[in-house]
Amino acid sequence: MIDSTGGDFDPNSQTVPTILIADDDRELVAALSRRIMHLGFRVTIAHDAISALVLIKRDRPDMIVLDIHMPAGNGMCVLEMIRSEWTWSDIPVVIVSGGATPSMIQRVRDDNAHFVPKSTGMWPSLQRHITQTLTPFCIGT
């Protein structure tokens, strides 16, 4: 688990939105973290489903980027737990996966989450969704 901050924001400020990245692909996590921090958001990282749930409970991130296939549980179970817990149910979730079936993608949408196919060209779609969802948090900071 890593806690990083980026951009020109005060990392101790409660007004800086935090994004949890939960994925076991460490290279992808490092690349996404750099890009998200460059946008000015805080980043926390989990490399398995259990750590993701611990960080969600401890920190309540403003958004979660979640892989489906991870050790110690899978992202679909984490998403279902997020949606079933009333204190977390409104957290925006983006599922990223390269191996999702059409039925998995439909389950993601049914759970009110956004799906981005994991690929080398995924950043523009993920960036657009992050900025559209979290920019209102940044107004006035």
Q: How would you characterize the overall build of this protein?
A:
Helix 2 runs parallel beside helix 3 (75-84). The protein has a six-stranded mixed sheet, with helices on both faces. Strand 5, helix 4 and strand 6 (114-117) form a beta-alpha-beta unit. The model is unreliable at 1-11 (pLDDT under 50). The chain is α/β, with parallel strands linked by helices and 141 residues long. The radius of gyration is 14 Å and the shape is globular. It is built from five helices and six strands; from the N terminus they run ββαβαβαβαβα.
List the helices and strands and how they pair.
Layout: E1 2-4, E2 18-22, H1 26-38, E3 42-46, H2 49-59, E4 63-67, H3 75-84, E5 93-97, H4 102-110, E6 114-117, H5 123-138
Helix pairs in contact: 2-3
**Radius of gyration based on Cα positions:** 14 Å
How far apart are the first and last residues' alpha carbons, in Å? Answer: 27 Å
Shape call: globular
Give the low-pLDDT segments: 1-11
What's the tally of helices? 5
Q: H/E series, N to C?
A: EEHEHEHEHEH
What proportion strand? 15-25%
Q: Please report the total strand number as a whole number.
A: 6
Q: Sketch the major β-sheet.
A: 6 strands, mixed
